[in-house]
Specification:
Blueprint: E1 2-5, E2 17-21, E3 28-29, E4 37-39, H1 41-44, E5 52-60, E6 69-74, E7 84-87, E8 92-97, H2 100-109, E9 111-116, E10 118-126, E11 136-144, E12 150-152, E13 165-170, E14 180-183, E15 189-192, E16 202-205, E17 210-214, E18 222-224, E19 231-233, H3 235-242, E20 244-247, E21 250-258, E22 269-272, E23 283-284, E24 286-288, E25 291-305, H4 311-315, E26 318-326, E27 329-335, E28 339-353, E29 358-362, E30 372-376, E31 388-391, E32 396-404, E33 409-413, E34 421-423, E35 427-428, E36 434-435, E37 437-438, E38 443-445, E39 449-457, E40 462-466, E41 481-484, E42 490-491, E43 499-504, E44 507-512
């Protein structure tokens, strides 16, 4: 069994996507018991770690509550407490960073947007530009100032222990980056970066742009000063009771809370073209700081296992992805005989985090353009230049003027059935986006098409066979129109200038809104 893994070393910011908009500019009044807007777990899958939810607050009513606020709720039926929230006193935009933990929860339970005594007029999704991982507890960027900074709640540090680390990434190119890290909240222990030289557990790396607090055992009772001026701090109690506050003229990109590295209880091994597919002499992952890493040079597929030996041993404990968290990070499980097929041949860095059961694939190599064909009954399953898809960006591949009969079976593939080999367990209906799977079954067309356009998105593996019938094909239907984006996600408020799949009654078409 095998599957393709899409992974990139970076993400590119795009225009925010409107998820929901109020009927009027005045917005909708929030009430804890009645979510303003919700997404099911399936619909919330479009929100990835590193993205931001931007909520537009039209106004706040201090007469209804002394502390008006907006929040993101776990689930669609009023889960409590909120995953993240913010107190607001006036019209504004509030940005919430989606961390790894938040993404995992909303992918399981869905997400709601709510609050108290605020009028929300819009909810938007902004694609992230900062790579975040399982230990990121906050990300921005944010221009901090005195009295206006970053706050990490105490709940994050409920299980803090000696050996853990707090790491802060700052913009080293900024003209000034003085930061005060206060353990325990505003009245806690102030550790300004300009005094980091005083402490052997506190470092500021100007070259990499990282501040690191090593929570060593001595911080359980650390004495500052001498004689009557001496003060004893318990860093662990301060964190558990008050969290962390950061302030000062500094652009903060993200904050990590890394647990102490545990001694490895299992090894991970990999085989592939980079080492000759030899399970008896596999490549061995390197363990450091709680994670396993491996660089696989010039490879497009591999198997990873907790067992070395002959093929029976190796295949008995291979690991496979179960959930795409985003930014190249996947939840995984151990199962029989699984093979990772990557987007393209490159030098891939593979990182396994056993504490969070995740695996990550990244590469600095640019993705090449592929020779991709429509191969099936209509051309004898051969490689025919007349059935070759073309691309202008290396991502969206298209083929125009396609005619096929109902029942035609086909796949999207390269000439060798190698890196590109995509099919589906679902039937393919015209004007309906379907996500294909690597090495999947043959696609089967539900009805005939003439002069259609085939579109295959190499990033999210979606296939769309567009007939170009237009909006007039559904104008005679009295049913309400339902809009979907090209990934098949339902859109409540389509925006001008975008393409959508429109379903009205029994008819479906692709239109420019």
């Amino acid at each position: 069994m095998s599957a393709a893994v899409a992974a990139m070393a970076f993400s590119v910011s795009a225009e925010p996507k409107v998820l929901w908009e109020a009927p009027s500019a005045e917005g909708v009044l929030t009430d804890w018991g009645k979510p303003v807007y919700s997404l099911t777990a399936a619909d919330a899958a479009q929100i990835k770690a590193g993205d931001k939810i931007v909520i537009t607050v039209a106004s706040a009513d201090k007469e209804l509550s002394q502390y008006p606020q907006v929040s993101i709720i776990d689930g669609t039926n009023g889960g409590w407490p909120p995953l993240i929230g913010s107190i607001v006193n006036e019209a504004c935009e509030v940005s919430f960073g989606i961390t790894y933990d938040i993404a995992t929860k909303i992918h399981e339970n869905g997400i709601s947007f709510n609050g108290n005594a605020t009028y929300i007029s819009k909810v938007m999704l902004e694609e992230g530009s900062i790579e975040v991982g399982p230990y990121t507890v906050w990300f921005g960027p944010k221009q901090c100032a005195w009295g206006d900074g970053v706050s990490i709640p105490k709940e994050v540090f409920a299980d803090v222990k000696a050996g853990d680390k707090i790491k802060v990434q700052f913009d080293k190119s900024a003209s000034e980056h003085t930061l005060q890290i206060i353990l325990g909240g505003w009245s806690g222990w102030n550790l300004p970066t300009y005094e980091a030289w005083k402490y052997d557990f506190y470092t500021v790396d100007e070259e990499t742009g990282w501040i690191t607090l090593d929570l060593v055992e001595a911080l359980a009772a650390y004495v500052v000063g001498e004689g009557d001026e001496a003060t004893t701090y318990d860093a662990f109690s301060l964190l558990k009771n008050g969290g962390v506050v950061m302030q000062g003229p500094c652009v903060v990109n993200q904050v990590l809370f890394e647990p102490a590295a545990e001694e490895p209880t299992v090894n991970y091994y990999a085989v592939g073209s980079f080492q000759g597919w030899d399970p008896e002499s596999p490549a061995v992952f390197t363990f450091a700081d709680g994670v396993y890493t491996l660089v696989a040079e010039k490879t497009a597929s591999m198997k990873i296992s907790t067992m070395a030996g002959n093929w029976d041993d190796f295949n008995s404990a291979t690991i496979a992805p179960t959930d795409n968290i985003g930014n190249g990070v996947f939840k995984f499980e151990v199962k029989q005989d699984y093979q990772f097929t990557l987007d393209f041949e490159a030098d891939w860095t593979v990182t396994i985090d056993p504490s969070n059961q995740t695996i990550k694939f990244t590469t600095e190599d640019a993705r090449p353009e592929f020779d991709i064909y429509l191969r099936g009954d209509m051309n004898g399953w051969g490689v025919d230049e007349a059935w070759k898809l073309t691309t202008t960006d290396g991502n969206l591949y298209t083929l125009a003027n396609v005619s096929m009969e109902a029942g035609t079976e086909f796949k999207i593939a390269d000439s060798a059935w190698g890196t590109i080999n995509y099919g589906s367990d679902e039937t393919i209906a015209p004007d309906t986006a379907v996500t294909l799977v690597y090495n999947g079954n043959n696609c089967k067309l539900t009805q005939s098409v003439e002069n259609a356009t085939v579109e295959f998105n190499l990033t999210d593996k979606t296939l769309l066979i567009s007939t170009g019938s237009g909006i007039e094909s559904i104008s005679s239907d009295n049913a309400s129109a339902v809009y979907y984006n090209l990934q098949g996600v339902k859109v409540a408020n389509p925006t001008k200038g975008n393409l959508y799949i429109v379903k009205k009654g029994t008819k479906t078409s692709k239109v420019a809104f």
